[in-house]
Amino acid sequence: MSATTLSQVVTRFAPSPTGHLHIGGARTAIFCWLMARHYDGRFVLRIEDTDTERSKQEYTDSILASMRWLGLEADGEPVYQTKRFDLYNEYIDRLLADGHAYWCQCSLEEVEAMREKARAAGEKPRYDGRCRHLGLGPGPGRAVRLAAPLSGKVLFEDMVKGHVAFDVNELDDMVLRRADGAPTYNFAVVVDDITMNISHVIRGDDHVNNTPRQILIYQALGAKLPVFGHVPMILGPDRQKLSKRHGAKAVIEYEKDGLLPEALINYLVRLGWSHGDQEIFSREDMIAHFDGTSLNSSPAAFDPEKLLWVNAQHLRAASPEDLLPRLLPFIDRAGLPAGDQALVARCIPLYQPRASTLAELAEQMRPLLLKAADISYDPAATAKALTPEGKAHVAALRGRLETLEPFDKEALHHCIHGYVEENGLKFKAVGPALRVALLGTAGGPDLADVMAVVGRRDALDRLDRAMGM
Length: 469
Ligand code: GLU
Description:
- With 469 residues, the chain is mostly helical.
- It has 20 helices and ten strands.
- Helix 1 (23-38) packs across helix 9 (283-289) and helix 16 (388-403) packs across helix 18.
- The longest helix is centred in the first third of the chain and has 16 residues, at 23-38.
- It starts with 9 loop residues before the first strand and ends with a helix.
- 35% of the residues are buried.
- Bound molecules: glutamic acid (GLU).
- The site of glutamic acid has 7 residues, from loops.
């Protein structure tokens, strides 16, 4: 497959709004979106809300919000299946008129009895086609069924699975429209995919058994088949069905945890697709390389640790200007002052290499964002470093810092190291005391960086507070 042979790629993501967007669905959406973007095609979003009992507006809103957050923008407004019943009926009428569909008066109990009978005879449970030749017309309680071919095979080339074949006699005359007038899932999907000009149907392989049924509907309608791609499910690290206990969450929860959408996309795209050994992809990289090939046919396992690692890589690569607005809500949520945005901006590069999420980044900045009076001093670190000797060094340095010009990183660095050398000391006689005095903890970024970021007044306040302890 190459851009020159695929003239108009149209993909769709078709979630049922019966829950939030989870990582399996998100990965399908990413594949569909990338395929469209790679080939300069269109990506459409279809809300499959015909199951009115389980579909909820709240979930539609949540799925749309997750898609927006992930940056998987669709071309055009979302399409809702519940608004397309007239269209489905038109297609039903066409099939009835052409003899590809027929009215069926069998009750659910009768159909169940047929299935039971088939099961008892060791056969596949199926509808026996008894209304097919009755020439029935419309009437209360009547469904419409497809007059499916009685023999032969349904074949297709799957983007992921390769050659797939189903025997037609494994399929029965499926219902297209129920007695209550609602289209069945398979019928609505086919009418939608045809009328939306979908060229590539990429979805989870839990749908692969629907595909031969859908192909029969395409054939009855004389429509061209799209290319199908069924991607294997994502498994847990124990190779079992993925669930919460594996640490898998809904996309909105990852947003709350402080993951970057570009990192979540990067992590998910690699679950089932590869481009050599490359692990870290920008959005542009993915679009450039994702051409619908190199999709893995064996299921990938979800690894929360790796997700955090990928996130850390993206966090490191992002520019502080880009991170600032995304970080502010997390600073706020951590109960830290977010008002001094210039201070937050100066802190970002200090902690960027150490954090794996935005929430962690906000938390790590705590000692820098608080004023001297609000910092909490770790008792063990304080007892160890702020000894009388340690405090004496802090006091001596304080004197130098008061008049240091300019009060910038380089000058601060020279100041600290100059003090250490002139007094024939080792850095560790001074560094830990200064660190605890400035931050309240034994760890943290470079001391000259810290002081340059908080500024002279704040740095001196911190030292004063520590010396008074
Ligand atoms: N609505 C289906 C689902 O959420 C997807 C159907 C399709 O992609 O064909 O699983």
